[in-house]
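Hey all, quick one. A colleague (J.T.) asked me to put the CA2 job into the tracker so the inputs and the structure tokens live in one place instead of scattered across chat threads. No bug as far as I know, just bookkeeping. Sequence used:
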Amino acid sequence: MSCSILILNGPNLNLLGTRQPEVYGPTTLADIEAMCNAKAQALGIDVVFAQSNHEGALVDMLHAARGVHAGIVLNAGAYTHTSVALMDAISSITVPVIELHLSNIHAREAFRQTSYIAPVAVGQICGFGAAGYPLAMDAILSYIGEAQ
Ligand code: CA2
């Protein structure tokens, strides 16, 4: 059976490329999805790309990943800095999660330097803009032993 990974995006990331390109870059989420699909095809793996502005919907998608996806790349957006619910959801599934951010959250406002995701993630990639997505795919595949 082919390996499948979930790439999950949180609030406001649907607006990427439309505002604040100096912070988040000019690339749209659709561009990033196409990049991830092309990489998955080249690697011979399956990828599901999703986005929601709703915390509970993100929790539901994390739960639904059990038994379906071998790993998850999660850009939880601003919920990174607030959501005990997402932290508990990651803790309650056995699917490994890589935390991802476009920007370097450690070089920004103090409130962005706290992550509820980091303590329950395998690791974190941030500060590389859209290029972080394929990097995070490599990271989760390496972690689960599917690196090619
Ligand atoms: O750097 C990241 O990837 C973030 O997860 C992006 C979140 C931010 O709250 C996190 O601290 C870091 C915000 C995403 C907002 O995306 C926008 C896209 C276009 C215009 C405005 C915001």
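Adding what we noticed when we looked at it: The longest strand covers residues 4-9. Strands lie at 4-9, 46-51, 71-75, 97-101, 123-126.
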